From TrEMBL, chain A:
Record GO cellular component, one term: endoplasmic reticulum membrane
Family note: Belongs to the ALG6/ALG8 glucosyltransferase family.
Provenance organism: Cebus imitator (Panamanian white-faced capuchin)
Phylogenetic lineage: Eukaryota, Metazoa, Chordata, Craniata, Vertebrata
Protein name as it appears in the record: Alpha-1,3-glucosyltransferase
Function statement: Dolichyl pyrophosphate Man9GlcNAc2 alpha-1,3-glucosyltransferase that operates in the biosynthetic pathway of dolichol-linked oligosaccharides, the glycan precursors employed in protein asparagine (N)-glycosylation. The assembly of dolichol-linked oligosaccharides begins on the cytosolic side of the endoplasmic reticulum membrane and finishes in its lumen. The sequential addition of sugars to dolichol pyrophosphate produces dolichol-linked oligosaccharides containing fourteen sugars, including two GlcNAcs, nine mannoses and three glucoses.
Automatic annotation (TrEMBL), chain B:
Membrane topology according to the record: Multi-pass membrane protein
Family: Belongs to the ALG6/ALG8 glucosyltransferase family.
Compartments (UniProt record): Endoplasmic reticulum membrane
Gene Ontology CC terms: endoplasmic reticulum membrane
Transmembrane feature ranges: 52-70, 91-106, 136-162, 182-207, 283-303, 309-326, 333-357
The protein's Enzyme Commission number: 2.4.1.-
Pfam families the record matches: Alg6_Alg8 (PF03155)
InterPro entries: Glyco_trans_ALG6/ALG8 (IPR004856)
Listed pathway(s): Protein modification; protein glycosylation
GO MF annotation, one: dolichyl pyrophosphate Glc1Man9GlcNAc2 alpha-1,3-glucosyltransferase activity
Name by which UniProt lists this protein: Alpha-1,3-glucosyltransferase
Keywords attached to this entry: Endoplasmic reticulum, Glycosyltransferase, Membrane, Transferase, Transmembrane, Transmembrane helix
Organism, as annotated: Cebus imitator
One example of a Gene Ontology biological process annotation: protein N-linked glycosylation
Amino acid sequence: MEKWYLMTIVVLIGLTVRWTVSLNPYSGAGKPPMFGDYEAQRHWQEITFNLPVKQWYFNSSDNNLQYWGLDYPPLTAYHSLLCAYVAKFINADWIALHTSRGYESQAHKLFMRSTVLIADLLIYIPAVVLYCCCLKEISTKKKIANVLCILLYPGLILIDYGHFQYNSVSLGFALWGVLGVSCDWDLLGSLAFCLAINYKQMELYHSLPFFCFLLGKCFKKGLKGKGLVLLVKLACTVVASFILCWLPFFTEREQTLQVLRRLFPVDRGLFEDKVANIWCSFNVLLKIKDILPRHIQLIMSFCFTFLSLLPACIKLTLQPSSKGFKFTLVSCALSFFLFSFQVHEKSILLVSLPVCLVLSDIPFMSTWFLLVSTFSMLPLLLKDELLMPSVVTTMAFFIACVTFFSIFEKTSEEELQLKSFSISVRKYLPCFTFLSRIIQYLFLISVTTMVLLTLMTVTLDPPQKLPDLFSVLVCFVSCLNFLFFLVYFNIIIMWDSQNGRNQKKIS
Amino acid sequence: TPTHPHATSEWTLDYPPFFAWFEYILSHVAKYFDQEMLNVHNLNYSSSRTLLFQRFSVIFTDILFVYAVHECCKCIGGKKVGKELTEKPKFILSVLLLWNFGLLIVDHIHFQYNGFLFGLMLLSIARLFQKRHMEGAFLFAVLLHFKHIYLYVAPAYGVYLLRSYCFTANKSDGSIRWNSFSFVRVISLGLVVFLVSALSLGPFLALNQLHQVFSRLFPFKRGLCHAYWAPNFWALYNGLDKVLSVIGLKLKFLDPNKIPKASMTSGLVQQFQHTVLPSVTPLATLICTLIAILPSIFCLWFKPQGPRGFLRCLILCALSSFMFGWHVHEKAILLAILPMSLLSVGKAGDASVFLILTTTGHYSLFPLLFTAPELPIKILLMLLFTIYSISSLKTLFR
């Protein structure tokens, strides 16, 4: 079949799945007084349209920051403003100041869902298609299958089109950034990534790998000549894009500080709600959130995060390669997710995007990770009554990956990129030959646990004394899985050196 | 579900008895989902559990459809053996049938149980291809008693079975050999049809309600066209009538007082008179339909070409009845589209006809889904199916 027909069909399938998921309820549907993320986005359209820029991030009688105050960088605010203009054109009641609080109607839901679809279609989907087309040493059919599997990833679909958020915008920009930097269009790539950071500050999870990779490239070109030129150009691009985005807020020092205070709420504590990271899981055994004072918690999370990601980043700076860059994105974002401050469960999407990018390299482990990442958001999805779409999209994704990547045949050591690691271990432990078998068993245990927990959460009621039992169990199990993946990805990065120099440069 | 003549609502049973029994079985399963929906007086009742049950029941009964597609793919010979799976005619046929846009939206969104009924029809066609004529006839008889719309294609079945099964041999030039008539086969066919009909209509004959059943099945009071016009000949006829009446009024040929006020375009289901052109009676539509199917029936009788000829005749019967029938639903176009898929992977000429038929037929189904959220779905699904069918058939007949 010709390539374009197949690619169109795959994109259409992705769009169809997205729109059908969007027919389900959104977060906070029919739940006054606070509703949910859907109402937050609508409220931001109201605020940005009706109030002047100077008041967007400040508490005032018109803008009550306790009721979904703006806590994303300026680009989100501009996007909300754009949507508000369209909303005004259709029905001004949707964004009327004060009176439109908690506005819910079929037409409005249609409008909001369309904004997500349009943003997705303009930014994320073209990035995915272009990324897969630029993959090297893969047949056309495999590239198209890759696009299908990435587009079917359940986590992003469920959060963006179910729960209601605009993650596809920031992730799309980040993906453009990865694409640009991998194809040696460094300036465009860094511009795209700056846009991503300015859309959602969580993209900072990806910033270290970008920084190290570009720095490594500059070092390779030689700091006396071309490298320095590149470094200067990159710095100018970054600074210029930040100035452009933050222009209205640079007029006064207080403005900038207030925005920063909204973006990084250090007063809010180590974690909120149940999230599959170390601190929440540790809290089950030992209530560190209450024992340790706030600044100790900050320092502790800072140290753990940076210690865990340092090896990979140093390696990337010294040996910049596209493949290493992608894997470092994964491990960096995962370190941040597991150890950082104020992490939300939706932040796992920041790890899932890089994992989607390495789907063609290590299909088995990537599919496993993406399934766990969707599972880790189960409590959130159940709260939004998204059980049916979650189950269906997860099964569709799993079947697609199994069919197109034959993941169960790719579990040998070499396929898992663990060959050099196991060779090194075998120097000390000659009997270490069963690595792939262990990993297969772990996969089976992991999937069984996830399915069992899902069934239990849906059918049983938790005991009276432990009302959060199932959410905590879900987080705990996911956290264990994520720790395993952190170790695995770091191993791949660190033991890649022997292969990197011997084989041809594989992007 | 009520099986007695009671005007309890506008949605009373108007399918043959087997379908009623089917719904009866469903209702027994339904009570595990939601008791409330079984209350006769609970009209327009909908809850999320009801919805869940209904949708799952359609998906479950589609298993028969999947099996039928499997059987059909077995008996369709490939034109060439492509290297890859996606280029094999069997694969293309199964995608064209299983992902048929019309079936998807009518069954799973608009909501009906056509999946397993078409499964029965495709299965009976497959049995005829496999020369298991008795099974094919039996399945078709059962199908007729599930949904009488399949009467549209009954002539094709009747003529084919008579000509190719009851007359066991042909002369050397292909024409009929009268002395090869097999009484055994005719009688066994008749017996099968009789038994099935007895099973279905027998209880109502005993209860003396046959007349009522027939009047529910063939509601000739319902008018020439359905609320949503099926795109058939009578739609054009009505349109012409309207245009002529408007022109007539403008040019003062007609007296405005004599024109009936109710119009055909109002979207209601009633009987109307035409203003300028002669009014159409059910008998007239029957005669038009018979004239339209005559050529294909003649061909099937005088020049039988085996199961493939039968399939062509079936499609033509379905199309003719669609064009000229009384009170045709636009969903009836599926009766022509699905069998046509079987022919489309055989010859290039058939493939191009199939593409035209299927694209326009599916487009004509658009008004079935009219709410705003469903608009992107129907556009996306239509695009998906159309692009796939065009590209795959083009590749097959490169």
